[in-house]
Every structure is written in structure tokens, then in C-alpha cells.
Amino acid sequence: MAIDESITARQFLKTWQQIFKERPKAILVISGHWDTKAPTVNVVNQNETIYDFYDLPEPMYKLKYTPPGAPLLAKRVKELLMENGFKSVHEDKTRGVDHGAWVPLMLMYPEAEIPVCQLSVQTDRDGTYHYNLGKALAPLREEGILIMGSGATTHNLGTMRPGGSPAPSWALQFDTWLKNALLEGRYEDVNHYDSRAPYGKMVHPSPDHFYPLHVAMGAAGENAKAKLVHHSWDHVTLSYASYQFAAPK
């Protein structure tokens, strides 16, 4: 998506500031590409670009996205988590932004002026744990912070292939189930997707790219309304369905 102009989701992200006009004071990204044993925030003054991938086209390694860090936001995230029962929250004082953060952000906010902080996921925990992680961060909504979960609605890399074919039934069924669950506010079902959704384990052999959704969902609150703001497929089985959560007025 960072370099392929034909990917529909890329065009959506490039129009982000036209659609969402409110400019955040800082951005908290929960990325599927940072997995740690305990919740961890990166506490840096300046973010460097992390090339946490391999065997991709050479132009990918020439891209740079170096927004300011958000150390005050990182400390606030740690404070909120510890106040809400997460006893061990770590600080990483060297980590920059991984491609789960910088690829979408370079399209959304190409000027790279808004401070960015990342929060890790814990793939040895479950959806409810990550939902509660998000609930602890709910006050950030009123502090001008954009909370962004970056992963994928469907993410089984072994099934991806060049485009041109329709998405298979198992991917479509999960994608539709998730849309209905979110729009109907059935967040508890989403928390237990691995047992309640069709093909949950097939779609997400590892939960790393799904847990960011749970954090964003929790941060919005149990009465928040979900809205589908983009939907497209890439490489046949990869859904770029994107959801906005708006807290009740």
C-alpha cells in the first residue's frame, strides 16, 4: 500500500484529512507489528522509521516517515493503564514507528508534523484483555488524541495471491460477520471472535493484526457507535475494512 497506486485503500487514506477534518494533537497507534509480554509504549522525542519487513520491493526501503515522538502522551498512556489494573507497563526509549504505523500515517498525514506514540499488543492474551486495555485509555478521547488500531480485518498471509479473483467464502463470511457485529454493537461477540465468528482461526492464524481493533473498540466505550468508513479487498483474501468509533454525544 505504501508504493502501489492501484490499491484502493491507499486512495482512501490519502483523502483522510478531507474526510476527518479535526486535527489531532497527537496520535496513539496500536500496531499488529509490536508484540511484547507486557504493554509497552515508545517514549522518544523523535521517531525513526523501522523497516520491519523483508523481501519487499527496494523502494519500500527508501521511504522515510519520522514524525515527532509523543513522550508526554506515552507517560499518560502508562499512567492510565496502571490506574486501571495493568500493573506492569514498560517504556521503550529507543523504538521508532513500525510499518503498521508509518505506512498508513504517511498517507494520512504526509507532513509528519503530528506527534506519534505506539502501544504494543500482547498476543498471548485474548480479545477481552485488549478491549479492557482500550477502556483504560478512554479519557484520551477528550484530550484531542487520535487512537488508531492498525492491523487487518482478515490476515492470513499464506492465502494471499495476485488479485483478479473474488474473495473466498471463508474470508467473506468473517468479514461480513465482523461488520454486522460492530455495527450492531455486539462488542462482546467481537471480543470472543475466535469461538463465535465463522472461520476466526482461519482468518487470523495469529491474533496480532486483530487485537488493535479491540483496543480502539474499548477506548470508544461500550455505547460507542461503529461506522464502516472504507471497504476494499487486496490480494484476494486481505480485507481493508476500516471502522470509526464515535462515542455517544
TrEMBL record:
Its cofactor is Zn(2+). One of its GO terms (molecular function) is oxidoreductase activity, acting on single donors with incorporation of molecular oxygen, incorporation of two atoms of oxygen. Keywords: Dioxygenase, Metal-binding, Oxidoreductase, Zinc. InterPro entries: Extradiol_dOase_DODA, Xdiol_dOase_suB. It comes from the Eukaryota. Residues 15-245 form the Extradiol ring-cleavage dioxygenase class III enzyme subunit B domain. Belongs to the DODA-type extradiol aromatic ring-opening dioxygenase family. This is AROMATIC RING-OPENING DIOXYGENASE CATALYTIC PROTEIN. It comes from Salix purpurea (Purple osier willow).
